[in-house]
Amino acid sequence: MSYLHKLLSLSLLLTCLNGWAAAHAANGTAPETRIAGPAAELVVPWPPGGGTDSVARAFAQLAAPFTQHAPVVVNRPGASGAIGFQYALTPAPNSKLAMASAEILLLPLQGIGQVQLGQFEPIAQLTNDPLAITVRADAPWQSIEQWLASAQSAPGLSISTAGVGTTHHMAVISLAQATGALLTSVPYQGTAPAVMGVLSGEVHATIAAYAELAHFVEAGKLRTLAVLAKQRIPAIAQVPTLRELGHDLQWSVWRGLALPKGSAPELVQAWQEVAHRVATSPQFASTLQGLSITPAYLDRQRFSARLQAEERAYRALLPHLKPAQ
């Protein structure tokens, strides 16, 4: 499926979701309004077109019946997500939810931007997808073993990431240290442009969630060599994990919702309920699966526990990582 077809599919799916909400309203089965006031902004710290943006738009559509005014997706890319997270904390008459990702943990630990995890109130995790190493279909490497051999033999093999200090960047550094690969990390402003970097030949490879480039693999333009996960991905069951090669590297892209710390308790509770209703609905699961994104709902308590555990892990890892090459 081409990238254009993927975007058209998302548009069609969102149109169907609008119809679903309208049908419920027409039948008198729409839920009572839980969140009143101006339309909330769902802040995406990345450019349009990426996986986080797609998840945000699907969530906003399905959340509409639970709000007085449908949430509005606002893209604020830059500084590896720091600009968007900072914008989400800016006071406004309406509520702002951040589309949170691991960068909300990583950026402050690396001194990038001024946002701290403690400034946010976790609401729920929505998705989780493992990272994958992918090259152009016409690249000379047919396997991860061949690619690693090239990367280990001489410096200069470039690999694009979603930005400095992102999960993708950290994964590249840990990959280089674990395997001895002499990689040059090339940061972009988000996953979508990072994938375009390998498609255009600007870089030799990219590291991104398979979900965010599956359509290019299916179209025969890219080839995924390995996934950084405990188990293989069913959609590409022929592609090995790095763990199978003796490198137990597990990195994933998760996405969730967070409100600014200090938000009214009733607002926090309301968004928790909306997140649960949306994230556990068949419509949300179907929409994400149509985009090759994996639904993975965690409620506030479990999501908060994951954030705390990952922050501890990152703190332990950072001193052992070399600066980006």
Automatic annotation (TrEMBL):
Going by the UniProt record, its keywords in alphabetical order are:
Signal
Transmembrane region positions? none
Signal peptide, first to last residue: 1-25
Q: Which SUPFAM superfamilies match?
A: Periplasmic binding protein-like II (SSF53850)
InterPro entries to which the protein is assigned, alphabetical: BUG (IPR005064), Bug_dom1 (IPR042100)
Q: Which family does it belong to?
A: Belongs to the UPF0065 (bug) family.
Q: What is this protein called?
A: Tripartite tricarboxylate transporter substrate binding protein
Taxonomic source organism? Vandammella animalimorsus
